User: Which sequence fits this backbone?
């Protein structure tokens, strides 16, 4: 009993705050415990915890790698930190209302995808001088891709037209890292561990990122019932985030650790 009291007070305070902040959603929230058959809600919960754990891991591992790799691990941790925070909000919105959290999703992507592009730039910069144009082309591709997707999902553009714009932005990024300047720099100057990390990362952007347009297609273009389409959209986007935020960070961590171990002891500190 003694232990329950503060919890109840905390819960009550939370509900009152929620009532003030969002009139109308109180009823849903007070009923809104996670249901075992809510596959989207469960995936939001599991992934938000995985993102928290990954953040702690990447930040703690910074002390273990050579100085030139620290920024990369830092950025990996920032990606999972920003995503974890958005996952808390998306999870609550979904569990309380059953609505698809499009705005939170795109705010998250708008911050985390440019950070992932920074990773490409950093991993190459750790071993050679890279022109800033590489970075800006990756950023421009990102904005076109996400701007197109958002315009379609939020209803500002026809879903097919928006999809085409988004695909164009993605194709531009893929072109840059496979055939453009970023790809050439890697082929010409990177040591083996960086080359293999870079090539794994490219495949993440080609194959891992392809999961997102599949989610969009299932959500908007194939014409299922509205409920089923939104379940598919969210499950597929959530799965994609695990691969592309957590696995992507682990790839960089692997390269950083193996490159650090190759260095003579004196230059590790
Ligand atoms: C951490 C979040 C990441 C890596 C998000 C990536 C998002 C995409 C690759 C989205 C791609 C899309 C298209 C290629 C077509 C239009 C619809 C989008 C925005 C889902």
Assistant:
């Amino acid at each position: 009993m003694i232990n329950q009291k503060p919890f109840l007070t905390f819960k009550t305070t939370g509900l009152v705050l929620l009532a003030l902040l969002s009139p109308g959603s109180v009823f849903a929230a007070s009923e809104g415990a996670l249901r075992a058959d809510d596959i989207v809600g469960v995936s939001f919960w599991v992934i938000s915890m995985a993102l928290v754990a990954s953040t702690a891991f990447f930040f703690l591992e910074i002390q273990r790698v050579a100085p030139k790799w620290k920024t990369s691990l830092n950025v990996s941790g920032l990606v999972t930190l920003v995503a974890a925070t958005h996952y808390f909000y998306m999870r609550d919105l979904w569990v309380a209302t059953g609505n698809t959290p499009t705005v939170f999703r795109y705010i998250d992507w708008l911050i985390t995808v440019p950070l992932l592009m920074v990773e490409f730039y950093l991993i190459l910069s750790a071993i050679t001088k890279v022109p800033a144009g590489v970075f800006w082309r990756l950023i421009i591709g990102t904005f076109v891709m996400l701007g197109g997707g958002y315009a379609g999902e939020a209803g500002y553009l026809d879903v097919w037209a928006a999809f085409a714009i988004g695909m164009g932005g993605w194709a531009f990024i893929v072109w840059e890292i496979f055939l453009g300047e970023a790809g050439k720099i890697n082929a010409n100057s990177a040591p083996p561990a960086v080359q293999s990390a870079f090539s794994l990362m490219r495949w993440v952007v080609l194959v891992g990122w392809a999961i997102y347009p599949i989610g969009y297609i299932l959500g908007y273009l194939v014409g299922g019932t509205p409920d089923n389409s939104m379940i598919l959209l969210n499950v597929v986007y959530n799965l994609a985030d695990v691969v592309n935020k957590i696995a992507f960070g682990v790839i960089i961590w692997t390269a950083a650790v193996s490159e650090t171990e190759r260095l003579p002891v004196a230059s590790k500190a």
About this structure: The domain at 34-268 is CATH 1.20.1070.10 (Rhopdopsin 7-helix transmembrane proteins). Confidence is low (pLDDT under 50) at residues 1-8, 20-30. The pocket of retinal is lined by residues 109, 112-113, 116, 145-146, 148-149, 163, 166-167, 170, 209, 212-213, 216, 241, 244-245 (CB under 6 Å). The radius of gyration is 21 Å.
